[in-house]
């Protein structure tokens, strides 16, 4: 249900509250920032918490295109229930073997809801679009209560790291996670680190060092990981918007159109009923009819209350113009900020079965739609848009220029097989020191056959030394290729030597597949080059 009335401005934004069990400290925030941007926390090293929460995208996912589509509940791409989500990891079982997903095959899985902004997450007492993270935070290992109330951000922080869609192999445990963090080099896959992260790592180069500084001992636990991640996010206060400056007394901070838009926002358009200043959210859940509730029941899935069917958390509108997608499902057909305003002024909201009464019959004149759109731009903090402190971040491995990618696809060596298709080597991340293994997948045009992976040493790196993989420089296999409806697949996993000597070691890899449809009876993938990081 709707709560409150039309809001008047309540002053500029102030820092979010923190539970007494997890007070904000500079040391915890520094550790949390490093953890948040470390791709090595994912099972395969391909994705960080921050991958889906880029500041210059308003704290949401900057990625776009076909690779961000989820087929919706019907499981079929190209139909009306498709949504825009966040690409995660390739599906992998508990043994680290890639397995085709029913919807995404051997491509990254995509969440069925668009990643909400993290930049105001600390202000909400219930998190995720359906509010399932709330209140009491319980140690997932011991079962003890560590935060009695107000621990939604700590609860939410751990969820994606064990999600088999977002960051993890199926069945990943907290033991596996903490053992990984104990041995990796912090932010080893990232570059262009922010000054505060660089300084923290210069004085404390390992994760045990960083945990010792933040918590008084080097022990790494899920609770401490959550505490650090939540603390970092509570330092992200986007309070230097033109609207905040106006509230502080700078009468020239907003344009005439933005001032008109603010007036309409707070009165005739009733936007402020749900998007209440200064957070521009109301910590409640509402139905705007963006999609039928049969596509996604929203809050109902958590509470079981029929009145919650189709309700979703009201997001903060701060930095909303920076987001490339909007609403809980990313609404692929809405491509501009103005579209997001206009949909509320049609008299029917999103046009589907559930709709808050306040929106029913609401008509917003075109001039007001334009002015409100301009007002929303006054909610952008320029530090967020420019990714300057405290919203600065490292460059992720996945963001490197094509020529600097690791692994690097060399574009040579392919031999076509059945159907005129070459085998495809599948790998999303480089091997890195501290990982228990490195894996290379295969998608072949033919199943029920055998393949082999050939490795060739490419360079010794700075220190040289052996890479602990079988048959270095020799074909690895044979390996059975399991059938799929359109071909076959396999995974080869390598154990890595836990020695700094392997950092910088380079090698090339290529799949060979027995295939009668190929010249000489063997199809080949293109060659890939890897460097241990």
How would you characterize this protein structure?
Helix content is 20%, strand content 14%. It is α+β, with helices and mostly antiparallel strands. The protein has three domains: 209 residues, Cytochrome c-like domain (Cytochrome Bc1 Complex, Chain D, domain 2), CATH 1.10.760.10; 143 residues, Cytochrome Bc1 Complex, Chain D, domain 2 (Orthogonal Bundle), CATH 1.10.760.10; 132 residues, Immunoglobulin-like (Sandwich). Strands 9, 10, 11, 12, 13, 14, 15, 16 and 17 form a nine-stranded antiparallel beta sheet that branches. A two-stranded antiparallel sheet has the order 1-2. The chain has a two-stranded antiparallel ribbon with strand order 3-4. Strand 13 and strand 14 form a beta hairpin. It is globular and about 75 Å long. The N terminus is likely disordered.
């Amino acid at each position: 249900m709707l709560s409150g009335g039309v809001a008047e401005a309540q002053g500029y934004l102030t820092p979010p509250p923190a539970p007494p069990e997890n007070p904000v400290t500079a040391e915890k925030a520094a550790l949390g920032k490093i953890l948040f941007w470390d791709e090595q926390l994912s099972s395969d090293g391909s994705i960080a918490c921050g991958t889906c929460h880029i500041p210059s995208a308003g704290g949401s996912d900057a990625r776009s295109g076909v690779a961000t589509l989820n087929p919706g509940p019907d499981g079929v791409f190209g139909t009306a229930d498709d949504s825009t989500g966040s690409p995660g990891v390739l599906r992998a079982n508990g043994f680290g073997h890639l397995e085709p997903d029913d919807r995404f095959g051997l491509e990254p899985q995509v969440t069925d809801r668009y990643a909400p902004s993290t930049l105001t997450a600390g202000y909400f007492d219930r998190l995720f679009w359906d509010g399932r993270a709330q209140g009491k935070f319980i140690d997932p290992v011991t079962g003890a209560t560590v935060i009695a109330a107000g621990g939604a951000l700590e609860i939410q922080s751990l969820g994606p790291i064990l999600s088999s869609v977002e960051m993890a192999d199926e069945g990943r445990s907290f033991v596996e996670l903490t053992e990984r963090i104990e041995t990796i080099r912090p932010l080893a896959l990232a570059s262009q680190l922010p000054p505060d992260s660089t300084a923290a790592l210069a004085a404390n180069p390992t994760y045990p060092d960083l945990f010792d500084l933040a918590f008084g001992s080097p022990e790494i636990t899920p609770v401490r990981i959550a505490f650090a991640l939540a603390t970092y996010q509570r330092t992200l206060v986007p309070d230097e918007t033109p609207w905040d400056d106006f509230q502080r007394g700078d009468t020239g901070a907003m344009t005439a159109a933005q001032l008109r838009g603010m007036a309409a926002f707070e009165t005739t358009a009733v936007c402020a009923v749900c998007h209440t200043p200064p957070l521009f959210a109301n910590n409640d859940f509402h139905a705007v009819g963006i999609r039928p509730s049969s596509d996604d029941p929203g809050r109902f899935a958590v509470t079981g209350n029929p009145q919650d069917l189709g309700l979703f958390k009201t997001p903060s509108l701060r930095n909303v113009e920076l987001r490339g997608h909007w609403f809980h499902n990313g609404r692929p057909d809405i491509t501009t900020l103005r579209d997001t305003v206009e949909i509320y002024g049609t008299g029917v909201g999103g046009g589907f079965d559930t709709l808050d009464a306040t929106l029913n019959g609401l008509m917003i004149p075109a001039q007001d739609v334009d002015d409100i759109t301009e007002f929303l731009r006054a909610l952008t903090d320029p530090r967020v848009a420019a990714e300057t402190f405290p919203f600065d971040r490292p460059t992720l491995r996945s963001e490197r220029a094509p020529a600097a990618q690791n692994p690097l696809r060399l574009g040579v060596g392919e031999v076509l097989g059945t159907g005129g298709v070459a085998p495809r080597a599948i790998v999303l991340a480089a091997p890195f020191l501290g990982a228990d293994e490195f894996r290379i997948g295969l998608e072949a045009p033919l199943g029920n056959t055998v393949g082999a992976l050939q490795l060739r040493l490419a360079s010794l790196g700075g220190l040289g030394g052996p890479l602990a993989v079988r048959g270095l420089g020799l074909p690895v296999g044979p390996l059975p290729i399991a059938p799929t409806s359109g071909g076959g697949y396999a995974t080869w996993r390598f154990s890595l030597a836990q020695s700094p000597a392997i950092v910088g070691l380079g090698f090339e890899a290529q799949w060979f597949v027995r295939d009668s449809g190929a010249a000489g009876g063997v199809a080949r993938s293109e060659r890939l080059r890897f460097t241990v990081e």
